[in-house]
Specification:
90% helix; CsbD-like domain-containing protein
Length: 102
């Protein structure tokens, strides 16, 4: 998770830096600076969205594993297993919700 969070943070920083450079270029009439800023902004947004997609995938896996563990726990009448499964399922749902596309 730390790697995806790092990529997400770096992407946000690139996106912001690109926006600033783009706007400075627009204000000063420097088309090259404006274009470079726009490219950096898009690069950052792409990096950020890729990290979020990876986290959503991880969350879906947690959700599915949790559902299975919950159901197995219910079938074999193991309350602890069912509770652990439900917790993992909810964790996966939360991870997906926190990383929705922008």
């Amino acid at each position: 998770m730390a790697n995806n969070q790092t990529n997400r943070g770096e992407g946000s920083a690139k996106e912001l830096g690109g926006k600033i450079k783009k706007n400075v270029g627009a204000l000063t009439g420097n088309e090259r600076m404006e274009a470079e800023g726009h490219a950096k902004e898009l690069e950052g947004k792409t990096q950020k969205e890729a990290a979020k997609a990876a986290e959503r995938t991880k969350g879906k896996g947690e959700e599915l594993i949790g559902k299975a563990k919950n159901r197995i726990g219910q079938v074999i009448d193991d309350e602890q297993m069912a509770a652990e499964g439900k917790a993992k399922e909810l964790k996966g749902n939360a991870r997906q919700n926190m990383n929705k596309p922008s």
